[in-house]
Amino acid sequence: MTIHVSPQACPALVLNADFRPLSYYPLSLWNWQDAIKAVCLDRVHIVSEYDKVVRSPSFEMRLPSVISLKDYVQPAKYPAFTRFNVFLRDRFQCQYCGSRHDLTFDHVLPRSKGGRTTWENIVAACSPCNLRKANRTPREIGMIPRQKPFQPTVHDLHNNGRAFPPNYLHDSWLDYLYWDIELEP
């Protein structure tokens, strides 16, 4: 899974006031128009710029490539419970067979048996495994998820998101991405 970023669009990497990206997956990017609007409204600092310039009759400005928010935005501890975030938690893999194709989600304990639609009972599953498991428990069918479902933190999703970088990373972004991961000895 890849986020497609067009270098010709000159997106700006958005950093929090602590110079960490607001999000790794999807990578926190704003289009150049929104970045310039935020600069004009004095909401961000320009950290780095592209060589491209935008002009109006009375104004000229190089396009920002990296911006940081002036005010720190406290990140949420827990992400929203969405299909995308379930897939990201499970690394876009079926938790029964490992396939990355035709993903949906499965109630580990079926709803008909009291299972709820919560982080702790939903896993990513490919359609064939989901159909095979049907309305049975993992023990009844012998299909145990590779990872027990859990409520991830934003940090968990950021760590997983690093495995799925965008197709394009501008050189000016590299100093601000992945700097807070543990280094290999």
TrEMBL record:
Keyword Cell wall biogenesis/degradation assigned to the entry: answer is no
**Is-annotated flag, keyword Hydrolase?**
yes
Q: A Gene Ontology molecular-function term?
A: endonuclease activity
One Pfam family this sequence matches = HNH_5
User: Known CDD domains for this protein?
Assistant: HNHc
Report domain HNH nuclease positions.
81-131
Point out the signal peptide segment: none
Tell me the PANTHER family matching this sequence: OS07G0170200 PROTEIN, SLL1193 PROTEIN
What name goes with this protein? HNH endonuclease
* Organism expressing this protein natively: Pelagibacterium nitratireducens
